[in-house]
Each structure stands twice: as C-alpha cells, then as structure tokens.
Amino acid sequence: MTAAEQASANIGVVGLAVMGSNLARNLASREGNTVAIYNRSYSKTETLLTEHPEANFVPASTYEEFAASLSKPRTAIIMVQAGKGTDAVIDALTEAFEPGDIIVDGGNALFTDTIRREKAVRETGINFVGAGISGGEEGALLGPSIMPGGSAEAWETLGPILKSIAAIAEGEPCVTHVGTDGAGHFVKMIHNGIEYADMQLIAEAYDLIRQGTGATPAEIADIFAEWNKGELESYLIEITAEVLRQVDAKTDKPLVDIILDQAGSKGTGVWTVQTALNLGVPVSGIAEAVFARAVSSKPAQRAASAALPGPSSVPTVDDKAAFIEDVRQALYASKIIAYSQGFDAIVAGAEEYNWDIKKGEIAKIWRGGCIIRARFLNRITEAYAENPGLVALVTAPYFTDAMAGTQDSWRRVVGGAAAAGIPTPAFSSSLAYYDSLRAPRLPAALVQGQRDFFGAHTYKRVDMDGTFHTLWSGDRTEIEATDSH
Q1: What is the pLDDT of residue 375?
Q2: Considering 78, 178, 249, 297, which has the largest number of Cβ atoms within 10 A of its Cβ?
Q3: So what's the pLDDT on residue 5?
Q4: Using CA atoms in the order 286, 291, 292, 293, what is the torsion angle rounded to 10 degrees?
Q5: Residues 209/223, Cβ–Cβ less than 8 Å
C-alpha cells in the first residue's frame, strides 16, 4: 500500500474508552469523515471494529501506522484520562507528527496544564488544541457542546470537523473557537462549575419541597416536569424528574431513597473555585455546591453531629402550592446568580490570560449538547449582544427584572429554611451575594480598619485620594498618608 493510499482518514481518535469510542462513532457517522482509531490496547480497537463494521474506521496498532493513515495536516483528538497519560500520548504523537499537524486534547484537563502543553508542542511546529467537550457519553455520540482553544491556524482545519459533530441548537452548531492556548479548557472548567451549582440548587429545591410539604419523590417529579415547561426549562430539570420517578427494582422504594447521600466530585468544580480565588472573583454559589458535596462525604462527622440541637420550633407550610411556587422562583433567581458568577470568572480569566472570549458566543454553544443547556441561555446571549461590557450579567435589564419578580419568594424560602433548620447553602449564599452587590456600603470598611490596626495594611478614604495608615491610640487617632499618588 502506498503512502497516498494509506493516508485516507481526515481525523483520528486516540483512546477508545466509552467517551473516545462514542466520539469516534459520531465522527464516522458524518458525511465526509473517515476516522483513524488507535488505542494502547488493540483489543479495544478490535471491539469497536467488530461492533460497528459500518463505520468509516481506519485502525492502527502503532502511532506510526496511525500517523500514516491521516491526511495532512494530520489531526488527532486525544480521549484519555487527564494527567500523565495525556502527556505520554502527546509525546508519542509529537514524535510521529510533523510541523503543521494538529493534536487535540478532548479530556477534562486543567487549563494551566493546557497552557503548558501548548507552549511545549508549539516549539515543535505542531498545533496543540485544548478542547472542552460537554454532554457526557450521550453527547459524545449524538452531538456535544465543544469548546476548543488553540491557534487560528488549527481552527481552520479543525472547525469544519467539529461543526460536523456538534450538537445543533436553533440551527447553529454548538461549537466556537474560544481563544488561544488554554481558553477552551478554561471555559469548560467554568461550565462544570456552573453545573455543580445548578445541581446543588435543584437538590435544595427538592429537599425543601419534600420536607416542607411531605410530597413523595414521584409527586415532586411531576412538579419538576411542570417547571420544565417554563422559564426553568433545562436538561438538568428534565433529568431530575426522571431520577425522582425511578423505583428501585429490589425494594420497590423510590431509588432516590436508596442511593447513599454522599456526592462525589471529579475535580472541575474544585478547580473553578480555586481559580476564582486566584483571580479574586466571588463564585460563592459554585463554592457552596462544592462544599456541600464535601460535607455529604464526611459520614463520621455527620454521625457524630446528629445529636446537635436544632430549632426549638419548626414553621409549618399552610399553603403548599404557594410554597412550591416560592421555591420555583428562588431556584430561578439562584440559577441566574450561578451563571452570572460563572461569566464573571470567564471575564476575569480572559483579562488575566489575554484571551478574546466572546461571552455571547459561549452562551450560544451551551444551548445544546451540554449538561447545563437551558432555555434562558438565549437571554444571556442577548444581554452580551446589547452590552458586551456588562460589569455583571445580573445587571442586564432582563435579569434585573427577573430578580425584581423573584426576590420576595427567594427571601421567604431562605428565611424559612433557616428557621426550619433545612440546609440551603447554595440558595442562601446566592442571595447573600445578590444583596452584597446591591448594598450601598459593606462592612469591609471595618475589616480594613482591623487589618490596619494589627498589621499596618493601610486603607483608602472616601473623602480624599491616597493610601493611609492610622496611628492607633484611642478614640481619636492621627492618620498619616503612605502614598500621595
């Protein structure tokens, strides 16, 4: 076979576990695509070929064969576990590829690792792209939301291929060139952080309705299904209804009552919070969602604390329908805060790493294929189209009006939950963040005074320019300017 005959694939996939296999099948199902496939264990390659003989696959047993089967510029998507395994595959492909070729990491890599890898690979003349891929196993097969970074040169080749497999929302593929080096994985990380907050908020809404009204999981499933017809319409609301309807085959009890109440985490939510702290961006709703999973996963502490006293009296819900509507509105308001905080982090990241991220385009590609797809993402796109320089998404007219219509319910829910001893960390922190934004003056002035007292950290004044330090010596103090500029 000649080299020209061998080079028959326009795209390759390395790593054929479930996500990689599904992505390869998705690619092969689209007109014009022939897919080279490689896995370290060739048995997985053989399994994929056997189970899907109709697919346009070109198998390879070595990286050299894999490279030879790809037309130039060679383009390969890595779908292996993040970490050392990714680095090993990148090294092998770098050896087999040539300048101008493209290596795409489609895993959930930490964006700073992607920045490092892109810089190293670029020195060889090969393009490296970090691409966030959202939608899980089903999305990989049927159409995910894709967030690629990397160079404009790589996007020219990669863009049409990714558009061919992405989810479609309102006639548009859910993929856009996010920005250079680590921008794609950064935005995917924030997506996952918002996902953490969204899931926690939904869980809190379920818990409030169950404890507040005594409704069964099946009855609450009907409530969520009804909510999914309105402004809360989203993938997560939809699947929540399905989860709550599920009955355990072994016990005939609601499955949600059989599942152990300890939530796991794969790290992207934690990365979001850590990164936001480094950027100085408050993402309190996301942080509380991460912490809620951490609390749930501490059985010894929870068991030891079971005897801690709770409220002396618990308020009762007299009007169940009105209470459920309050919870719905509180959920909507808190979801808006989660997205607003997430986009604040995207803005800060873009400034810090010099990425030209178009916020409205990000909202558009999240409308389909991804876990946080929701009806009101169109409103986010419209908000940034009207005002690209929004200082906070929640200040856009549509969302300001939404807050005006929901905040009374929101406050009743958070206050009632506190009185009843029902934990609502994401609802509560979201409301506190909202009130912090709208407060004309915050107690941070006292914090600055404390910091100056014990550490001479200085402060600024409301009545004159400059930075000052107080010579603390009683009720009336002397000040000294430390920086007159």
Answers
A1: 86
A2: 178
A3: 45
A4: 100
A5: yes
pLDDT of residue 266: 78
CB within 8 Å of 241: residues ≥ 6 apart = 221, 222, 224, 225, 228
Catalytic residue of the set 118, 188, 288, 335: 188
Q: pLDDT value at position 6?
A: 61
Residues in the chain: 485
Task: Report residue 4's pLDDT band, with 50, 70 and 90 as the boundaries.
Answer: very low
| 153 backbone dihedrals φ, ψ, rounded to 5° | -60, -45
Burial 2-32 (b: 16+ CB within 10 A, else e): eeeebbebbbbbbbbeebbbbbbbbbbbeee
Could you tell me if 289 and 200 are in contact, meaning their C-beta atoms sit under 8 angstroms apart? Answer: yes
**pTM of the prediction?**
0.93
Confidence of residue 483 (pLDDT cuts 50, 70, 90): low
**3: pLDDT strictly greater than 80:** no
Q: Is 325 a catalytic residue?
A: no
Active-site residue identified among 118, 195, 204, 288:
195
The count of other CB atoms within 10 Å of the CB of residue 43 is 9
Q: Cis before residue 73, ω within 30 degrees of 0?
A: yes
Q: For 201, list phi and psi in degrees, rounded to 5.
A: -60, -40
Burial of 163 (0-12, 13-18, 19+ CB in 10 A): middle
Confirm whether 188 is a catalytic residue.
Answer: yes
Other C-beta atoms closer than 10 Å to the C-beta of 228 total 18
